[in-house]
Amino acid sequence: xxxxxxxxxxxxxxxxxxxxxxxxxxxxxxxxxxxxxxxxxxxxxxxxxxxxxxxxxxxxxxxxxxxxxxxxxxxxxxxxxxxxxxxxxxxxxxxxxxxxxxxxxxxxxxxxxxxxxxxxxxxxxxxxxxxxxxxxxxxxxxxxxxxxxxxxxxxxxxxxxxxxxxxxxxxxxxxxxxxxxxxxxxxxxxxxxxxxxxxxxxxxxxxxxxxxxxxxxxxxxxxxxxxxxxxxxxxxxxxxxxxxxxxxxxxxxxxxxxxxxxxxxxxxxxxxxxxxxxxxxxxxxxxxxxxxxxxxxxxxxxxxxxxxxxxxxxxxxxxxxxxxxxxxxxxxxxxxxxxxxxxxxxxxxxxxxxxxxxxxxxxxxxxxxxxxxxxxxxxxxxxxxxxxxxxxxxxxxxxxxxxxxxxxxxxxxxxxxxxxxxxxxxxxxxxxxxxxxxxxxxxxxxxxxxxxxxxxxxxxxxxxxxxxxxxxxxxxxxxxxxxxxxxxxxxxxxxxxxxxxxxxxxxxxxxxxxxxxxxxxxxxxxxxxxxxxxxxxxxxxxxxxxxxxxxxxxxxxxxxxxxxxxxxxxxxxxxxxxxxxxxxxxxxxxxxxxxxxxxxxxxxxxxxxxxxxxxxxxxxxxxxxxxxxxxxxxxxxxxxxxxxxxxxxxxxxxxxxxxxxxxxxxxxxxxxxxxxxxxxxxxxxxxxxxxxxxxxxxxxxxxxxxxxxxxxxxxxxxxxxxxxxxxxxxxxxxxxxxxxxxxxxxxxxxxxxxxxxxxxxxxxxxxxxxxxxxxxxxxxxxxxxxxxxxxxxxxxxxxxxxxxxxxxxxxxxxxxxxxxxxxxxxxxxxxxxxxxxxxxxxxxxxxxxxxxxxxxxxxxxxxxxxxxxxxxxxxxxxxxxxxxxxxxxxxxxxxxxxxxxxxxxxxxxxxxx
Length: 913
Ligand code: FES
Ligand code: FES
Hints:
- This protein is α+β, with helices and mostly antiparallel strands.
- The chain is built from 26 helices and 31 strands.
- The strands form 7 sheets. A 7-stranded mixed β-sheet has the order 8-10-6-17-14-15-16. Strands 2-1-5-3-4 form a 5-stranded mixed β-sheet, covered by helices on one side. A 5-stranded mixed β-sheet has the order 12-20-19-18-13, sandwiched between helices.
- A hairpin with a 5-residue loop joins strand 22 and strand 23 (629-633).
- The longest helix is centred in the C-terminal third of the chain and has 24 residues, at 686-709.
- The protein starts with a strand and ends in an 8-residue tail after the last helix.
């Protein structure tokens, strides 16, 4: 067959049944991505005769005789197409995994299609940006600025990888080809709870191309947690690489390693597994009741399982004052029970990686991870390897949102590479992503709250039941975090928490953006609004009367480990003012019929800027011979902007421009330790290490220049790529040359231990319209104010907030993993799960408080996950304001709202204002 790909003719026959996506990737067009392989996401978009198509659902032979354009060929001769330039100017990407497909679709639109972007972009999903920067690109807006030497911090500088991202040249986990690579496919459990009695490997090994079948008999008999934290005591040791007991549908049973994916899949089909079915428990309330089947009865508190016989992974109980008495004496009280569902991170790049053993005997793992250093630590422990015999690294990661703070593939990759001695690749399908990685913890939260006549809180109580699924990764820390800042942000003399997290025979929960707070805030912020309503004061006023102020203790009953949380800066009051003012302004005029009810709601959140219990980062920076600098940090880039911000910090400290900072990151073979990019620590913790290293080197440069110029180092300053000592100016390049001649290398290191920690704040406001006849919701206005300290990069921070609000709106309005009574995920596809598309996502007005944090790098605070947290709560409050009904279960789908609306308003009873 003859194809024209990116203007060049060539002939090759695809394999029988091969789709165009894999055909193009095998030819080296790595800009063609995989997000779903089902035609739902658009990551694989290419142009065929100028028309955008999803190449994953087009048979490759259909392109015979047609002109195919991938992102690499959109602009001739390696140039930049106007749409690629527009994406650069607007910085219309974060992780960039959707960007190739998105640009190709946008570049193909005619004027009429551009007028209807809701329809035109419905085939291209972006999980990171919230789509507004993409709309900006189509509108020709420029969101970036320049910065003179020494002024990078605080400016909206573009991401350094931008040109490679928009041209499809940025290399993600699977964008490499290796000689002799084998492929792994996994046989997964069809049962929610069973013991594996035997696995007959022979039929699979007889499949041509199959090299190995790995089962529990081949895996180290060692327990660990897939969760990755600096301190192992945070998570239970309840998991094996491959176990002889399966505890959820989708759990790993056996890995088949073969020359091709097809052979590995055939091997999986032929494996014969004999199971003994065990009783299962799907509901968390039933799981902790007496007599329920125990999933981990063999685990003990020493393995950090609080009560294996009762399926309790962790629990927290505590009280300040006396809540019962305070409630009895309160002028107003509220009690309600709220439920939150399972949601998936849905990063467009699935989990996976490659592993090989190099000629020096080092196990190399190239992985889609947020935590390369902690993953290396786990591999050394599980496989008894010396740290210098394991290297884990990532190049560019296609989204994480907490889901890649786990080790789901690297252990299998390591086992397969060790067993076969060949390079191996393991790439999850989208279905595997849904049924076998981790999700947000579903929670049932009962809140009790009281206030006196003056609107001062008298009592706050939370009763939480969290569902961790079959394994306890992140179960305890998420539970404690959920109950901590949600109560800690309010001054109240009587607080109580009773919280339990239960094992069930369902897909595990894990770290997810917000780390439990969105679930509890839905209840707490509803209670605050209901108290205000009972007292006849505004939602803003009751919060102003009760939120913590600098100097107030940050008290929450489950934790005593908050002594290192300080008010590095405080902007919650500003955030409330900013949202209140913005909400008073008119939104766009929309004509609505009288059956639309209109209401407004707000919610606030506080978050510690670093996870508790230790979070470490080392940075190293060295002067290069050309006068530039090489900066090495361990933290990963997965759309969170660390590669931009770290260069800004270093460039500012060294009085230079960001183009002089050459960054090497997220590779255990280079630099010191880094706990990882989670809990928004990439800026706050690793940024402080970078600042420290750069300031140390700046000082060394001054001393070196003063010696060379025979001046007092106190009179030397760094200025525009030079050190100026009195009237003498010595360029960095001259210093490097002099140092080299003296046999010296100028470099410095910096360390951050993640303590003391600060607090960041966010306030979200919504104006919504709800149709009282259908339950349909329209968002008329969305405003978000954030206290991010001194904002390191306003454009990027704004993007994090827009993306966080959009992702949270998905979890508030549509997204839900449905699990049937047998424990099976019934909708493991984007098509059935409903990620927000361009049309679903309103523009959010983003505002910043004006503060400078005393603890953060150059005054900045973290702001990657917290914008997600108040969204469901604010929307619930807006719905209650509009309808007078308190909806207590997310997602707020029309079919869930309708029965209560119908009961209250009957057949289209109109009410408007
Ligand atoms: S990978 Fe083709 S549409 Fe998702
Ligand atoms: S930038 Fe769109 S999915 Fe990450």
